[in-house]
Each structure stands twice: as structure tokens, then as C-alpha cells.
């Protein structure tokens, strides 16, 4: 397949591009910084420079493509959620999707499949409720972002394309995401449950997410929203215990909810919200997770990390 990828230099994107190339797919990369992309991704790629919030991609980028994978977006944990940062988070998703698909319509290209990133933040803080793709959407900033993000994926004028919207959970991998920040704390014995520890955390190993994206590209039976999470969510306390065990370090230092709210402001929602998200739809489509349980996922990620 000839696959157009955005966000290819990011935490998940780098692994996806590598896997696509290894599987003999042709990758066309849209990126802000072409030179940095060449350094980060030393693979045979066709690279086009693109400012996602400011313009549509070059028309040539769409030439004869079979698929699009759109992962671009500002990290939600890049800084405190002041007004400016919240606008950056929203615009990086909404405007980039709008410009990408506006460019697609103008190009006249007709790829077979469009895979769009979204997030389980669309469900909001839901306690112990089991969340399916057809569950009511939630409230809060992240829910608003995801709702607007997904809406842009159904622009009027789009050609008839099988569209898969991946509602991605917490992605686990030592090179980035939540674990890159948690591992140093746990290694010095300062890790532990957050808030009550009873809130549900729906996660996915980065390798499984990459495989799920490939599965979505190739499986014609998959469409619509998909919960991109492992089949066994964990409470925050269970996750903390599993990470401590994987690193052979204690994990009993609790972080009170009030302290997090003071320190992080509204961004404390990232660790205090509870989302028990179900992966049944994708498993019913015969997708098999390599890391379905959090302990085995964390053991694999942490096995080459020095324990002291």
C-alpha cells in the first residue's frame, strides 16, 4: 500500500512508519520539519513539508495513495492547561484534520481507507461504567476536543472512504507518553497510586497500537469508532503496583488528589479521571493483543531498564 502519514515523527508515529516500511508499504510523510524527519526516520520515505494548522498539504502528497493515517496533534501533557495551551491542543487536532481532508477533497484522490486518531477522553470521567463505542460522550475539555476532532473526520464533500476512528487509551512505551515521566519517579521509590487509586485506566502497549493501526488499514470489515485499548483495564492502584513490580521498586507513595489539582490545575483530569473502556469491538473482529494484561506489558517495557 501507499500510505500517507501525519505525526510520523511522534512517539507512536515513529514505530508505525518503521513497521510500514518493514512490511514493504510505501510511506509518504507530512511533517513540519523535513530535515528533522530525515534524521528521526532513516528509512526510504517520500517527505513533504506541511504546517498542519496553517494550510492544506501539497497536492502531490496525495498522488496515488491507498490510505491515510492521521496521528498529528499537540501533546495533551506538554504544559499546564492555560487558555493558550488549550487552544493549541484543540487547534492542532481540529485544524490539522480539516486541512488534511480539505486537501484530500481538492486533490481528487480516492484512498481506500482513512485511519484517524482520537482518544478515550471523549467519554469523560465515568467512574465504574463500562464504556463501549456507542456509549454517550462525556463532558469536560478532553471530551470537547475529541468531539470536535472526530466531527472534522466527516467533512461534507469527502469521497466514499472506509473511515476508522481510533479512540486511543494511555499508550505504554518507555520512549515517551506517560511511562517516560513515571519510570524515573518509580525508580527512586517515589511512585504510587494517584488520588483514591480506584479510578480506571484504559491503556494499550505501543506495539499493539501499531499492529492495530496496520490491522485497521488492511481489514475491510473495520470502520467507525474503535476503542484502541487493551482488553483488561486496570485501576490506578493496580497499574502503580504492576509498574513497581516491573522495576523491582516499592510503589506505595500516594499522591493526594488535592495536591495534584493544585499542582496541575485542570490537567489533573489526565490522572484523576476514571475510564473503564471496553475493547470488545476490535477483539470481535479477530484482532489479537500481544500484551492484553498490564503486568506483562510493563514487564516487557521495563525488562532492559536498570533496576537501580
What distinguishing features does this structure have?
globular, alpha/beta, 13 strands, 308 residues
Summarize this, please?
Helix content is 38%, strand content 17%. It has 308 residues and is an alpha/beta fold. The strands form four sheets. The chain has a seven-stranded parallel β-sheet, sandwiched between helices. It has a two-stranded parallel ribbon with strand order 6-13.
What does this structure look like?
The chain has a domain at 2-171 and 205-229 and 279-289: Rossmann fold, CATH 3.40.50. Helix content is 38%, strand content 17%. The chain is built from 11 helices and 13 strands. A 7-stranded parallel sheet has the order 3-2-1-4-5-7-11, with helices on both faces. Strand 2, helix 2 and strand 3 form a beta-alpha-beta unit. Helix 1 (11-22) packs across helix 6 and helix 7 (236-247) packs parallel to helix 11. The longest helix is centred in the first third of the chain and has 25 residues, at 83-107. The mean pLDDT is 92.
Amino acid at each position: 500500500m501507499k500510505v500517507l502519514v501525519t505525526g510520523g515523527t511522534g512517539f507512536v508515529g515513529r514505530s508505525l512508519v518503521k513497521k510500514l516500511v518493514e512490511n514493504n508499504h510505501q510511506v509518504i510523510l507530512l511533517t513540519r520539519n523535513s530535515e528533522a524527519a530525515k534524521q528521526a526516520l532513516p528509512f526510504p520515505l517520500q517527505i513533504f513539508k506541511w504546517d498542519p494548522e496553517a494550510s492544506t498539504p501539497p497536492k502531490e502528497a496525495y498522488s496515488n495513495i491507498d490510505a491515510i493515517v492521521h496521528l498529528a496533534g499537540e501533546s495533551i501533557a506538554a504544559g499546564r492547561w492555560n487558555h493558550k495551551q488549550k487552544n493549541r491542543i484543540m487547534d492542532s487536532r481540529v485544524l490539522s484534520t480539516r486541512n488534511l481532508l480539505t486537501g484530500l477533497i481538492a486533490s481528487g484522490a480516492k484512498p481506500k481507507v482513512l485511519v484517524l486518531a482520537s482518544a478515550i477522553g471523549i467519554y469523560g470521567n465515568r467512574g465504574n461504567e463500562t464504556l463501549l463505542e456507542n456509549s454517550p460522550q462525556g463532558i469536560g475539555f478532553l471530551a470537547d476536543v475529541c468531539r470536535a476532532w472526530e466531527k472534522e473526520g466527516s467533512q461534507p464533500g469527502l469521497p466514499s472512504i472506509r473511515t476508522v476512528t481510533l479512540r486511543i487509551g494511555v499508550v505504554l512505551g518507555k520512549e515517551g507518553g506517560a511511562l517516560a515521566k513515571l519510570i524515573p519517579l518509580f525508580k527512586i521509590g517515589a511512585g504510587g497510586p494517584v488520588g483514591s487509586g480506584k479510578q480506571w485506566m484504559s491503556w494499550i502497549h505501543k506495539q499493539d497500537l501499531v499492529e492495530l493501526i496496520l490491522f485497521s488499514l488492511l481489514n475491510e470489515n473495520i470502520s467507525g469508532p474503535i476503542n484502541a485499548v487493551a482488553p483488561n483495564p486496570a485501576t490506578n492502584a493496580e497499574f502503580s503496583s504492576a509498574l513497581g513490580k516491573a522495576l523491582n521498586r516499592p510503589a506505595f507513595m500516594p499522591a493526594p488528589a488535592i495536591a495534584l489539582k493544585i499542582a496541575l490545575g485542570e490537567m489533573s483530569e489526565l490522572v484523576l479521571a476514571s475510564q473503564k473502556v471496553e475493547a470488545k469491538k476490535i477483539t470481535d473482529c479477530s484482532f489479537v493483543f500481544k500484551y492484553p494484561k498490564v503486568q506483562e506489558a510493563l514487564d516487557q517495557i521495563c525488562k532492559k531498564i536498570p533496576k537501580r
